[in-house]
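2024-03-11 09:14:02 INFO receiving multi-entity request
2024-03-11 09:14:02 INFO entity count = four
2024-03-11 09:14:03 INFO echoing inputs for audit
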Amino acid sequence: MRATARQRQTQPLQIVRLSMARRGRLLRRLWHDAPLSSIGALGVIGFLLLALIGPYLTPYNPTANSLSERNQPPSLAHPFGTDNFGRDILSRIIYGGRNIFALTGSATLIAVGLGLVIGLYVGYLGGWLDQIVMRLADALLALPSLLLTLVLLGALGNSRFTVLVAIVILYVPIVTRVVRSVVLDVKTKAYIEAAEIGGESRFHILFREIMPAVLPTLAVEGALRFSYAIFLVASLGFLGLGVARPEPDWGLMVSEARDWYALSPHILFFPSAAIVVLVVCVNLMADGLRRLLEYSEAD
Amino acid sequence: MRSTAAYVLQYWFFYLKGGRAHTPLHEQFLRQIAMCSSSRKISRRRFLSLSAAAAAGALLYKTSPTFAQASDRSAQGLRPQTARTGVIRVGWEAVKRLDPAFASSDSEIAFLTAVYDYLVDVTTTDAVSPRLAESWRVSEDGRQYTFKLVPNAKFHDGKPLTAEDVLYSFNRLRDPAVGSPKISLFDNLEQISAPDDLTVVFTLKTTEPDFIYSITDNSAVIVRAGATNFETEFIGTGPFKVERYIPEDRTLFVANEDYWQSGLPYAAGMEHRYLDSNAAIEALRGGELDVVLRMPNARFVALQNDPNLQTVTFPTSGHDALRLRMDMPPGNDPRVRKALKMATNREEINAFAQLGLGSPGRDAPIGAYFADYFDPDSPLPPYDPDGARALLAEAGYPDLTFDLFVPNTGTRPDFAVVIKDQWAKAGITVNINLVDEATYYGDDGWLEVQLGITGWGARPSPQQYLDFSLKSDGKWNESRIADPELDALIVKAGTSVDRAERIAAYKAIQRKLAEDGPLIIPYFFPTVGAARKEWQFEGGFTVQAFPGRTTFTRARQA
Amino acid sequence: MESPILAIENLTVAYRLQGVWLDAVREVSLSVNAAQTYGIVGESGSGKSTLVQAVMGYLSANGAVRQGKIHFEGEDWLNAPRRRREQIWGARLSMVPQDPLSALNPALTIGEQIAELVRRHAHLSRRAAHARAVEMLQRVKLPDPEGVARRYPHQISGGQQQRALIAMALASPELRLLVLDEPTTSLDVTTEAAILDLFAELQDSHRAATLFVTHNLGVVARMCQRVAVLYAGEVMEDAPTITLYSMALHPYTRLLLRAVPRIGDPRPLQAIPGRIPSLRQRPSGCVFAPRCAAAIELCHAQKPPLERAVEGHLVRCHRWREIAAGSLRLEEASAELKRREMQQAEIAFFEQLFSGEQNGAQATVMRADHVRVQYGVRGLLGRLLGQKPPFRAVDDVSMRVLRGKTLGLVGESGSGKTTFARSLIGLIAIESGEAHLLDMPLRGRPRQRAKATLKAMQMIFQHPEESLNPYRTIGQTLRRPLMTLSGMSRAEANRAAAELLRAVSLPADYLSRFPSELSGGEKQRVAIARAFAAQPALILCDEPVSSLDVSVQAAILNLLAQLQQQHQVAYLLISHDLAVVSYLADYIAVIYRGQLVERGTAESFFMPPHHPYTEALLASIPLPDPKARMRRIRLTDDQPSNIVPSGCRFHPRCPRYLGDICRTQAPPWQRDRQGGYYRCHIPPDELAALQTEPEG
Amino acid sequence: MISYLTRRVLFFGLTLLLTSLIVFAAVRLLPGDVETAVLGRGAEPAARAALRQELGLDLPFLIQYANWLGKFLRGDWGNSYALKAPIMPLVMQRLGNSMRLALIAMLIAVPLSVLLGLLAGLSEGKPFDIAFSLISLILVGIPEFVMGIILINVVALEWKLLPPSASVPPDASFSEALPRLILPSLTAAAVLLAYIGRLTRVGVIAELRRTYVRTAVLKGLRWRQVVFKHVLRNALLPTITVIAISFGWLISGLVVIENVFAYPGLGRLMVFAIQQRDLPLILGGVMIAVTAFALANLIADLLYAALNPRIRLS
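2024-03-11 09:21:47 INFO inference complete, emitting structure
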């Protein structure tokens, strides 16, 4: 019996490729049932848009210092005020958002992609390979994530690339596990067997037949991983690791603002709030995704 | 007119402040910055400290062979004895090496300062004061230093202090087998001898007027002859005994009842707590700590407003130096070096990185702290970014790009951030590489990079900076400067027994460095400290230039 | 006449879905009297579960009664407060649910789950309640009731779980109404028969009324005195059981009865085309009109009322009078409909597909010799990891399948029949023995097999829901084998896929649809089309209709029969349902615990002598005929165990157990007079004599 | 059950072994050579070589690993390079401190979160549930360091209710230490609370939809009985696992929290060790953290198995 508690079987979520009309219906239903989730999703899209086009909207250079404008409270010119270098906090948050999406987002994507491929293969092939990979994943998962990241940062040097590598190393086993559990369920389905006896290649079975069933679960998992990664990078920034000054990184901004909050609390408030709001939005979005999948399953 | 965000903020202010109405702190703070950065007025207290230093210096360097005697010795024993009370809690970063030969950080030195005694000490004004040596004398030719030891000093294990211990302590620092990084301090030492149990004689190879400062070095504590196990046995003659050392957490000290300076310390004990500066400041504000001596300037500025705290700042000779290697292009071109100086606005950097608390730097490691040597009129090129751009173009570097390597500690990153911005106005691109400090210095990478910022701790004499980093054969000649004229000036400044000659040499060095040096030194660190008002400090709350040297023997709980 | 226990008047129940109320049950009226067993029969989507929920007074959160009344023992049940309901539930009104495992709390013992009900209503002490629970378990004929009371649900078999739930439902002495919600659907046929026996017996001992909800016409015929036929939320016909089965007045009822395969009846089954309209698409006229062969304009325009044909016989049809009078011949009408359907099928297409292979001298398509299959082969690591000990699911099975013929393989779940088929096609490894397909050895996983081997054998799976990839269009699904196995280009494959759809009577525009947009029957048609795409010589049909509704089942069976006739393809038909097997098969083999116990031609199969296991299977089938006499041969539940019994594997359950010989010696194959073989110690004549004796 | 038990214990050992290999390899990759770390800059080449030999750095990686593992298992964890102290007592004392913090956080978070999660799950869609979901969502979104800073500034420095730092004196009794532990525990508990609470809520909702609940209701049981006897028993089973998982999270979270509050725990020691490139200390600390985490998981698994008859009796 493999149903140990930790290996929670993730049921494959039956999302079916949908016609536009049906998609619209599901979205309306989501809006109706869970407006918060929709708001969360919109929030994430908003942050993404801001990160993409925000830099063209803000008149300030996020790393340009200005002695005459330091520590200014929020005003019309600087909606979020300025920091101890006179840098516009809103601009820094926007550029920092870029960092979040570029670094955290791409790390999550890579981890999800790798985890997907590994999970598909080991889940489908099973056997010794599966055992070895899963034991290895167990071992990696037994390491508290922040400690592992710290060790890696120490080992590979403190750079953005290392943070990326660390996130990937952290998340690949988790994603692999999730994908594998779905694959284990899907691969016993008759349509997979039908494909096998139809002489299909392994590639076709893995990526055309099985993968679509994994994607919805993966989307939810990816969203959650993303929010954890934001946390992780922020924590690293706070501990003074990862992204280097003067790059506008949210965690780093919080860390730096710690010296200043007694004098100018807004320097601490806005980046903290940005982290909280984005993480909450991502979580809400993940929740909404899950609901959408449940709908299409029940539909 | 008020945006929604402003409302949110207002609420946040209120929330943080527990809902009390108050004057917005940041305004006070801005006013303060404005004062520091725009006016160069020297505060009264600062003025006093400067003149005191000058007086002490004059006293010390008299060439007459009379014994120098410190004034504060008279204070000892006059004060009525009261029961020792209270444990003074001081926040430090964690200690690692407690072997005097290797100790280097503030916290480590603070530990040594508590447990051991120096032969002679430095005051906050760079004067040399007696400690285990109750008096000393310099020979006519300046090559012999004779120290008289106090007769009643005892080690914590009861053994009386003798000249043998002093010999052992210094010989240990000089011993290549021990491998202390301080070994070069004593290169010029020919021999140490002990004519009797309470007399020690240092004989130099050549004259070295600043040699007395080597005796005051952080590492030069007097240990028990034969002691080797410094990481677990802490036997000194100092005012405090170690009761318990808990690595990476704290050290508990108790007052040394048999301390030779009878009556000291006033406190019953001392506790060093090892925590990062943010936590330390919060602990100080919350009454969990009594003293914090090193902290980010912004935190210090905020603490100045705390009614429960007394604060103090002193200037030091410590500084951050931005330096360019001169043995490779573009640093080998004097026009480039000049252009970089022109592109730099030092006041602005000081205002940003030190919040104006630092004293201004003029691209030489000699600052106002060394009042006698400092030349406020050294010919710095004026701030002129456009001129710098033109000059660079002329030199053939119209689009100069640098990788700037910066240790990730202190205000060095802030310095780098401002420089990046300032130089951009002169068309220079700077890519900042923040490096973990331990890695940066540990792997000697700092000596190799083309452009870097190096932090230099406070030293009692400018000579060390010059010898180490600006002589062509200097141990840490990071800029690879090789200027025979400069070398000669440094030697002269370091060996001449003629005071006027030395002052002239130092000023010449400053002039050279200002005109064409590889360094940009925009500020000298302040040393700052904050203590709870529950503690009174005899003679006022003072902090040593190297905060770890601050003693708390005269702190008394109110 | 005494007042009914349960009276439902004009009940309409609706669900709120995305802000719209949709009726699931509409204008249903019926009343159940004391000691009466009232059957409600309906296919999936007929609203029978909703009706059950409404009767229990426990609708799901988004459901509501829109109109009508329910009286329970004369009390307004719909408006009863929660407190009152709690007093009645379990005490006077009980339910036996469909899926016993999920209906039991996995974390509590069986005994405790029954005892807590007793404690709640009878206010007995803990000890007395436990005693009562054990007593109830005994009443439902559970062996070792004390032991069962101490066990957790997962430790006992499905049949035992269902007995425990029955014990729970009957635990209250004041019980007035028992609602049975498909109580045997998830059980094996032999277990089902035993449970039905139990109900029949218990009905005599308690005076409670019973509402028996099922989709199985055979079960209803056996158990109920009166039946209501539910379709799309409405009662179509409501009559005493005997009347309904002999003189149904509604076209739907009639077709339903004709759609059930009967053993020994070779006539083609009557399929009902189309499917039950979804809640959103309920027609405004007669809800059955879209599928009705006899529908006239009036039917589409106007909803027929529920009329009383004779006393006690209600029917909802505009044309019941014509049907009653015999002037409307439904069979002819639907034959007409079927012809229309068949025109779509491009018979020529298949002929063309198979034309290249007409050198059919070789009669044997597939032969298997001494095939053994083992599950859970474990190595050192496996043992360390505590995997289950290996289990031989198929043990020494040999058989031949002839060109164009169907071999039916029958057995209970877990008998190894599916495992055998899967081992042939390579989804599980053959441990020993060998199998050949058209002289090509069947060895290794499908990936390791030659294209020709793959092409010659295909499979139809049990669950249509699972046999099509929900993420791929029908076109993509059908195109793959054409391209991979038959080497067609994409364009050719597209054309051929459309042809295939037509051959299974589906419109070509289904190519762009996703499986979720198809009904179960349509999905199974697509699965059949896929199996035929590679032009195989043999198709393994693994329970091809067991998860389909009765009306759809018939159409699929007909399609299979018709395609076989046209293309001389051989079938290995696996089913637990002897009626289904008898309809299609030319030869029948019975498998028990991995071994064949009987084989023979279909004609001789239903005549004695039978292997005692076959005999029990035959006796278990509920026939859709209330007048049919049941032979009472019942098997005890199969214990869920991996230990293979010694001697004859069937001996622990055998109704004709002889003694030590059965326990110690493996029985020999015996040949009966009709040319069938069975594996038993009892000689043919003796066995035949035993089995033709009339039941006492 | 016996086979299940042995299997879990076996996996536990295997996981630790693999983890140690991974950590050992990662630590060996750390830049900055060991000799410099131990001997300081400017050490003689001969001394360096001697040290290399003494530490066994010349040997192939796997032999180094085997040597280290052998010593480690015998309790010889070596001395910290940076602190010059034996590692085992140091790490153990820190582990004890961290555990104390974790324990208080758990004691605050677990009962409260289970209760709130249960109430929210039972009132799905009602105002209480919505409020709970929103608040827990926001709590989940607040990084520990932000939460810590807020608590320090508001509770400790403005309201002066509790000390701002968690720097506990050595040998302090539990009651003396407690006030200093409350703020960091609260910080850790906040996220934990939200996390466990949300999962309990989901578990309760999922169990409420299970068929056996209908069976229980239709037995006529009181709603209270249904909830506490039937639903909770099943809904809390996965929560046990969740608590074990959050224990792992806690170890990570404590790294930040201990730094914010200057608490002498294992997490702070680890950050210090990594900054100092103190290889033996990193290895010792990480291994003990991993062991604690894996042990928590093992205990949770066994507890889960013991409470779940489906596993206990299979």
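2024-03-11 09:21:48 INFO post-check: Chain A has one domain: 2-14+34-63+79-298.
2024-03-11 09:21:48 INFO post-check: Residues 2-14+34-63+79-298 of chain A form a domain with the MetI-like fold fold (CATH 1.10.3720.10).
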